Amino acid sequence: MGESARPRIGIVSDTPLQRHILQHVVEGVGLEIAYNLEPSKFSDNAITVDVRESDIDLLIVEVEGEQHCSDFIEQLLEQFDCPILFGQGKAPEKNSEEFPRWERRLHGKLREHLGDIDNIEAIGQSLSQLEKSPGPARPVRLPAYLAGMPAEHAGEVKEVWILAASLGGPEAVKAFLDSLPKGLPVAFIYAQHIDANFSTVLAKVLARHSPFELKIAQPGDRAAFGQVLLVPVDKEMILDECGRVQFKENSWPGPYGPSIDQVMLNVANYYGGKCHTIFFSGMGNDGAIAAPLLRAYGSNIWVQSPDSCANHSMPASVHGTGCSGFSGTPEQLAAHLILTIEKNSQIQAG
To answer: What is the pTM assigned to this prediction?
Structure first.
């Protein structure tokens, strides 16, 4: 495998459904499938030349009754020098509550054997290109109804929107923020999988054309109108009983920094059903566990449309839970948010 190539994976399973699900999950984190075969292709020395000569970095084997297939497993161990991943268990139904957990366990094993499958470094490196991108052709106008309302920026924020993203996220979030008007009464908390060294650059790049202030969260900060609070990568962030940012001594749980699932739960612990989330481009399934929980409390869960994502795995995983209420491009998500805020403001005004 070359330095710039993505790891190549072989899959062996005795059921077509399992082979399909395993391939979907593996490709969802940007890995390349070298082959996806049934066990008979490997038995009785029937392994093909193509498979024998394939340069793979990991072999995933999921066969029912593996404990009774010692000869087959021994054969694989003799024929392959790469790591072989056994015993992940049959994948649950894709729309079940257990599927995201099973998927995350598999992601963890892939990461354990292959390292940075999320390509976090590449996210930071892409910022240099994004910094040179042009801004919107013209500023977005604030709807007349909202423009005529009394300024709320001095008031307490009672509702917050989490922007959740991974690979391809900065580009999508920038397009989203650039499509919002100045003066829109909304507060954001932004959870982006990224190397901590790029956080300052990320805030600078996203604020370049946006009417919103980008700020890396510090202890004591509160969500504020006209501001995007960037969640730090290295320490878990919570909100205290007054909604102020505090940091725990520990890092984020799980493989991601920040953990989008945990960000959602921590923010919702203060805002309840007024904590909403928009999922943008990204690998993996971070957020797919917390999203249904927040939706049950009345939160809005929106996702970027797959065809507009650099990688659609994360928003697709959330959409697969059945809790997404809207899907669109970053620009469509922005337009829908403006309409939602305008409608809610009119309802509250009576």
So the answer is: 0.79
**Residue at token pair 């598999």:** 106
Q: What is the CATH number of the domain that holds 17?
A: 3.40.50
Mean pLDDT score of the chain: 85
Residue 171 lies in a domain: yes
CA–CA gap between residue 180 and residue 169 (Å, rounded): 17
CATH code: domain of residue 190: 3.40.50.180
Structural domain for 78, as ranges: 8-114
5 versus 235: which is more confidently predicted?
A: 235
Q: Determine the pLDDT at residue 119.
A: 60
Average pLDDT over residues 325-348: 93
Q: Which helix (H) or strand (E) holds 15?
A: none
- HSE-CB at 272 with a 13 A cutoff on CA atoms is 5
Distance (Å, whole) CA 346 – CA 350 = 6
Cis ω before 134 (30° cut-off from 0): no
Query: In the chain, how many domains are there?
Result: 2
Instruction: Evaluate if residue 95 carries a pLDDT over 70.
Output: yes
> CA–CA distance from 94 to each of 23, 181, 265, 288 (Å)?
13, 38, 22, 11
Q: Residue 126 falls within a domain, yes or no?
A: no
Task: Give the contacts of 2 (CB within 8 A, at least 6 positions apart).
Answer: none
Alpha helices in the chain (DSSP H): 16-28, 49-53, 70-79, 99-114, 120-125, 127-131, 144-147, 169-178, 199-207, 260-271, 290-296, 313-320, 330-349
Q: In this structure, is residue 144 part of a structural domain?
A: no
Torsional sign, CA 37, 43, 49, 52: positive
Q: How far apart are CA 282 and CA 286, in angstroms?
A: 9
Say if residue 106 is in the same domain as residue 190: no
Closest by CA to 61, choosing from 78, 36, 79, is 36
What digits encode the pLDDT tens for the residues 158-180?
Answer: 999 999 999 899 999 999 999 99
pLDDT for 115 equals: 74
Is residue 311 pLDDT above 60, yes or no? Answer: yes
Same domain, 70 and 167: no
- On whether both 88 and 154 belong to a single domain, the answer is no
Is residue 3 included in any domain, yes or no? no
pLDDT for 4: 47
